[in-house]
Amino acid sequence: MLVGHPVFWILAAAVLAPLLAEIPLSFKVPVVVLEVLLGIVIGPHVLNLVQFDGFVVTMFGIGMATTLLMAGMDLDFSEIKGRPLILAVGGWIVSVLLGVTVVGLLHAIPRVHAPLMVTLAMCTTGLGVLIPIFRDSDQLRTAFGRFVLASGTVGEVGPIVAMSLLLSQHYSTWQEGGFLLAFLAIVAIAIAVGVSARPPKILAMLNRHMHKSTQLPLRIAMLMLAALLLLADKFGFDSIFGAFAGGMILGQATRGEGGKALREKMETISFGWFYPFFFVGTGIKFDIAALGQDLTTMLLVPTFTVFFLLVRGAPVLLYSGHIDAAQRLPFALSSAVPSLSIIVVITEIGVRAKSMNPDIAAALIGAALLSVLLFPTIASSLLSRSAVRAPNGVPM
Predict the structure, then answer these.
(1) Which of 36, 282, 331, 382 is least enclosed, having the fewest CB within 10 Å?
(2) DSSP 237-280
(3) Domain holding 152: CATH number?
């Protein structure tokens, strides 16, 4: 039976997804959404070609850490400092308050529990989805693009830090606060060392191994990731915080032409091998049948989708005077694109800890998929129609 060959089917889905994305349509479907959809098709609830067990589960966990590693590497705070970052932080705080209100209302629905986890899921932004879209449309370096980039950055970082701090079961909140400061201090020191301490002899030695079978720089990077995963676990955080922190360190240490080769190798191994196991694996794991088991779960998918837009889109009101009126709806839609990877992580933790009903987890992921499919597509269409660019004099 071909069911016993999960690697073949997962990689087949990973190859097919970008090919399907090349089909000329009036709208562009993100490749990660196609990967998840293909995972559903080959998974146990449709064609039953792959089971979510054994090797697939192991690689899914590694792929989850890798997606957050690359999210950390993509962060560049120098691009968003000043007004964009200040507004983004303020907007995320507004989103948290709205999220608490919305989840409070949802809590009245039977089985919609885990309010903290659902709130954090509502407050995410999928920076990994937005960056390629804005890069392809030449919006990334505009004033409008920097505002969206800042909102997405905070929408990635905020939930990860909050999740690591508030969802830990090891220590009290105050103890976790102290451990968080200590962990961030270690990360800051590592970034400072990685950016400034570059002895010529060590750099020459690393360059010699860059293109050899030893691949020493890549092995050092992966060892550092493993060390941060272990350290995060010892401090009582979920390992995803260690993966994200590792990405931040690597991202800052490899800025510029000197780090280009290592970044390209990290992207190759992550995007080419580990990402499919996470996104296709998300589809394999996704119980699509659970959405149709009862009316409440079925209705929660469009409900969560609307709430994603409300919670992350409403802070656009803070941007009055900073972005053009024609850009406000595209900005709200872009900010409301949820981080599929973080939502999968949140639901995974919730179901594993038995604090979130699997049906609710399925509804959240289903709503995230629907949002990632609709929101950036509509936003791109609105931007291309208006062909509006933020004025050069916009205060930053």
Answers:
(1) 382
(2) --HHHHHHHHHHHHHHHT-SGGGHHHHHHHHHHIIIIIHHHHHH
(3) 1.20.1530.20
